[in-house]
Amino acid sequence: MANDDLIHDSHGGMPRLLEIMRRLRDPETGCPWDIEQNFATIAPYTIEEAYEVADAIEREAWDELKGELGDLLFQSVFHAQMAEEAGLFTFDEVADTMSDKMVARHPHVFGDESRDKSAEQQTRDWESIKAAERADKAQTGVLDGVATGLPALLRALKLQKRAARVGFDWPATDNVIDKIIEEARELNEARDSLGQDEIEEEFGDLLFVMANLARHLGIDPESALRKANAKFTRRFRRIEELLATCDKTPADSDLAEMDALWNEAKREEKGAP
């Protein structure tokens, strides 16, 4: 029976959201679009919402963060509703599984272990616990359990971290830079003499090593690239503004003029005369 009072209760919290999701998926009275969806069709939205949360944090848009977190929460609710319909699990079981995992992975908070240890030691302990969990799932390989659906750059970083734990890693940053130079040379050679598949392979190798350099430098490559994207967007918009003062658009300009305006935008940002 529909619980309209709960649906229209502005302070209904989590029960209200779960009831709304149930109603949206109701085969007889729900939303046709929501009813047609499945795990695969919703997954891209889940990834997108996670990035929108990260974007709000990156911009320190705290007034937007509440809404973005709500959008991401709704994705979990959507997947859990579909799972319940299929007899797989419920939202409460999702929450219980997460709670059990957090309690098990924090014995220094919820158990008898001492909290008197460094963040580095806690990280090592966390990884040991996760390794034991993977072993229980018969995931015995070093790289087992690294999700294939992660963004490629993030997955590269996770794969490299796993390999590094067992000693498969360059000892110094200089070794990684040497490898980047080698991979860039191979890409250049492939461009001149090989087919598109081989060029793509060499390009992937170069990106993979760049992710490794980020790890050695203590840089989050996703965050670094987001910042580079933001800088490019900011400076290109400044080019458009400067062109507009001459009643021009980028389509009316050429590379030489826009490159000069780019350098002007760059000087403005750096406060250079």
Automatic annotation (TrEMBL):
<dbReference type="GO" id="GO:0006950">
    <property type="term" value="P:response to stress"/>
</dbReference>
<dbReference type="GO" id="GO:0046047">
    <property type="term" value="P:TTP catabolic process"/>
</dbReference>
<dbReference type="InterPro" id="IPR048011">
    <property type="entry name" value="NTP-PPase_MazG-like_C"/>
</dbReference>
<dbReference type="GO" id="GO:0006203">
    <property type="term" value="P:dGTP catabolic process"/>
</dbReference>
<dbReference type="InterPro" id="IPR011551">
    <property type="entry name" value="NTP_PyrPHydrolase_MazG"/>
</dbReference>
<feature type="domain" description="NTP pyrophosphohydrolase MazG-like">
    <location>
        <begin position="176"/>
        <end position="235"/>
    </location>
</feature>
<dbReference type="GO" id="GO:0047693">
    <property type="term" value="F:ATP diphosphatase activity"/>
</dbReference>
<protein>
    <recommendedName>
        <fullName>Nucleoside triphosphate pyrophosphohydrolase</fullName>
        <ecNumber>3.6.1.8</ecNumber>
    </recommendedName>
</protein>
<feature type="domain" description="NTP pyrophosphohydrolase MazG-like">
    <location>
        <begin position="37"/>
        <end position="110"/>
    </location>
</feature>
<dbReference type="InterPro" id="IPR048015">
    <property type="entry name" value="NTP-PPase_MazG-like_N"/>
</dbReference>
<dbReference type="GO" id="GO:0046076">
    <property type="term" value="P:dTTP catabolic process"/>
</dbReference>
<dbReference type="InterPro" id="IPR004518">
    <property type="entry name" value="MazG-like_dom"/>
</dbReference>
<comment type="similarity">
    <text>Belongs to the nucleoside triphosphate pyrophosphohydrolase family.</text>
</comment>
<dbReference type="GO" id="GO:0046052">
    <property type="term" value="P:UTP catabolic process"/>
</dbReference>
<dbReference type="GO" id="GO:0046061">
    <property type="term" value="P:dATP catabolic process"/>
</dbReference>
<dbReference type="GO" id="GO:0046081">
    <property type="term" value="P:dUTP catabolic process"/>
</dbReference>
<dbReference type="Pfam" id="PF03819">
    <property type="entry name" value="MazG"/>
</dbReference>
<keyword id="KW-0378">Hydrolase</keyword>
